[in-house]
Design brief:
The structure is a single chain. This protein is α+β, with helices and mostly antiparallel strands and 349 residues long. The protein has helices spanning 65-74, 94-98, 122-135, 164-173, 188-194, 212-228, 327-336, and strands at residues 9-11, 14-16, 20-28, 37-45, 52-57, 85-89, 140-145, 151-159, 177-180, 199-206, 244-246, 248-253, 258-262, 269-270, 275-280, 287-291, 296-302, 306-307, 312-318. Strands 3, 4, 5, 6, 7, 8, 9, 10, 11, 12, 14, 17 and 19 form a 13-stranded mixed beta sheet that branches. It has a four-stranded antiparallel beta sheet with strand order 16-15-13-18, with no helix packed on it. A two-stranded antiparallel ribbon has the order 1-2. α4 links the parallel β8 and β9. α1 packs across α6 and α4 packs across α6. The longest helix has 17 residues, at 212-228. The structure holds zinc ion. Zinc ion (ZN) binds at residues 60, 63, 145. Zinc ion binds next to loops.
């Protein structure tokens, strides 16, 4: 880590000197209209030595909260005291962003295409460029996601929490829930881990929407990780809650096709056997209860009122053994104090 900033950094064949802040456009395969395409990257390379962190968003092209997290991060006053190198990529899946889609134009999921290759599919080529130029020379990474379309996630960190460095970053981030998520083949997370780059995945909110709490908590989370890894001066302010590690999580599916009425929502602390929702036929004649399989917290929920039997309704973090009912409330209160009204300028970070 030390000494890295003595030299310029090179990304996409361009040199960024110590003390420089630059926006780069890394060339990508053109659109079929022959319009040029490029991957936008902003690099802040401090004169002061420190680690290199990448922050990426919209690997799934319809997951947008991360874009706004990156925009606010790049305007944060705290960056004046930056040590090391911050590399921000607000829109990794450029092609998906253009079509409001999670996927590449050929239907591939970029987050199953890592580490990619120069001669593979469009997804593989984009993944390869991202690994080569952004990930491989980084010391740490934070990748920003939301729930899929029509599904919302409570702010949560997914990471390889058996690794002590990753665990420390996750706790510093301060999302209320941490999941020790298993690695998926082809994911950025697994490719970064193969390269020895500790990475956090922040999941918050739903696709194609901005959510102020998720965004504000995300910006603060990234800044707290930056303090933790020595890129910013540590602050003395104490958090009023401790993130909880969920040992397991599982999806609760609707037992019958029909119209869903929610009794509990995102962030609710639920008990085993508790009624979470009611599914009825369109006339409301036949009703079935959706029951919680264990004690836990609802960390993901479908927003779609019409579901077929077997479709996922709630994602519940299992806290059968160890359960702090207050963590979500404490998290929300902590951030409510700090978020601006929906369309107003956010308070400075
Ligand atoms: Zn995603």
């Amino acid at each position: 880590v030390s000494g890295r900033n003595v030299a310029a950094v090179e990304i996409g064949g361009q040199k960024i000197e110590p003390g420089q802040r630059r926006v780069l456009q890394l060339p990508l395969p053109r659109l079929y209209t022959h319009a040029e395409a490029s991957l936008p990257v902003e690099v802040i390379h401090s004169k002061r030595p420190g680690p290199r962190l990448f922050v990426s968003a919209a690997i799934h092209g319809d997951e947008l909260n991360g874009l706004e997290i990156v925009r606010r991060l790049l305007t944060a006053r705290a960056l004046k005291q930056l040590r090391g190198t911050l590399v921000c990529v607000p829109m990794v899946n450029v092609y998906g962003c253009l079509t409001h889609s999670r996927y590449l134009p050929d239907g591939r999921d970029l987050n199953r295409a890592f580490p990619g290759s120069e001669s593979g599919s469009l997804a593989a080529r984009l993944a390869h460029l991202f690994i080569q130029e952004i990930v491989s020379d980084s010391d740490y990474g934070i990748d920003l996601h939301t729930g899929a379309r029509h599904r919302s996630n409570l702010p949560q960190i997914r990471a390889q929490l058996d690794d002590p460095t990753t665990r420390e970053m996750a706790e510093a981030f301060g999302a209320p829930i941490m999941l020790n998520a298993s690695l998926r083949d082809g994911s950025l997370r697994s490719a970064a881990q193969d390269l020895g780059v500790p990475i956090l995945l922040y999941e918050a909110g739903e696709a194609l929407r901005f959510d102020e709490l998720c965004i504000s908590a995300g910006v603060r989370g990234v800044l707290r990780v930056m303090r933790n890894i020595g890129m910013l001066t540590r602050s003395r302010s104490k958090r009023r809650y401790q993130p909880m590690l969920a040992p397991r999580s599982s999806w609760v599916r609707v037992p019958a096709s029909g119209v869903v009425r929610h009794l509990r929502g995102l962030g609710a602390s639920v008990a085993k056997g508790e009624r979470l929702a009611i599914v009825s036929d369109p006339m409301g004649q036949e009703e079935q209860d959706v029951i919680s399989p264990f004690d836990g917290i609802i960390i993901g929920a479908s927003r779609m009122p019409l579901l077929h039997e077997g479709e996922a309704l709630y994602h519940i973090a299992d806290f059968s053994d160890d359960h702090d009912d207050n963590v979500v409330d404490a998290f929300q209160e902590h951030h409510d104090d700090q978020v601006a009204d929906e369309w107003g300028e956010p308070l400075s970070y």
